Amino acid sequence: MVNPDEPADFVSQSADPAELAQFAQHARHWWDREGPFAPLHRINPARMDYIRNQAIQRLRLRGGLQPLAGLKALDIGCGGGLVAEPLARLGAETMGIDLVADSIIAAKHHAQGQDLPLTYRVASAEELAAAGEVFDLVTCLEVVEHVATPSAFLATVASLVRPGGVLVLSTLNRNLASLALGKIAAEYVLRWVPAGTHDWRKFLRPSELAAPVRASGMQVVDVTGLNLHPLYGWQARGPALVNYLMTAVKPGDV
To answer: Where do the domains of the chain lie?
Structure first.
């Protein structure tokens, strides 16, 4: 087991040190709903509904309170556990990994006493891939726009999905709308996230996200926008104008 107080021995070749430093600066605030990660708390119910529904559909699961029971799940770039914890509550044996040790400390602290099938590690996707790890469900949300080499990173992420398994990604589209809303408005006008959180040049169009996933032998089966409804709040539905989610499956037995 990796000590969360120490850096990972196997450093990700896709990691951007400047991006990691940005997240380390705010790591202690992961579970502050009014802090720098407040936007993630607002969109998280919609993200989790999407993941749950896609997993049930693609893996042919039953519904209920713990539809993911019996599955192995991995959340890459887990931060403080905003996605890993709910995955574990849905029944999956879940591992959350992140390269920011302070984020893993925050995640472990928040999960204490909840008796969840949940483990956290300071580790990279490359480290798990080198060890031959595979999972039924892999999530990687709001991460790819922060890595140095998205294509290589996504190839590694895809290798962690077992045959028949499911990958769920999310990121921001690169267009004028995302420049205005996802970068300028979010960081400098509304101040939803700290200034400098995103580099608009690293945003990926759906076709750019899908290409390396398909090249890794997976089938992209869904692309859905994550949009703010004036009455009902954030919903995973509609066009991929700014934020969006993507689901891919790896051919094989379910």
So the answer is: 17-249
C-beta separation of 56 from 63 below 8 A? yes
C-alpha distance from residue 167 to each of 176, 248, 249 (Å): 28, 5, 6
CA distance 244 to 200: 15
Of 3.30.70.3460, 3.40.50.150, 2.160.10.10, 3.20.20.100, the CATH number of 17-249 is 3.40.50.150
Give the separation between CA 44 and CA 175, rounded to whole angstroms: 23
Both tokens of 184, joined, read: 């300028």
pTM of the model: 0.88
Report the 10 Å Cβ neighbour count for 242.
Answer: 23
Radius of gyration in angstroms for the set of CA atoms belonging to the chain, rounded to a whole number: 17
Which of these, 212, 182, 187, 186, lies nearest to 200 by C-alpha position? 182
DSSP code at position 172 = E
Measured on CA atoms in the order 208, 197, 160, 127, is the torsion positive or negative?
positive
Q: What is the pLDDT along the chain (254 residues), one digit of tens a residue?
A: 334 444 444 445 567 777 677 677 778 889 999 888 888 899 999 999 999 999 999 999 998 999 999 999 999 999 999 999 999 999 999 999 999 999 999 999 999 999 999 999 999 999 999 999 999 999 999 999 989 899 999 999 999 999 999 999 999 998 866 555 554 445 443 445 555 555 657 889 999 999 999 999 999 999 999 998 888 899 999 999 889 999 999 998 76
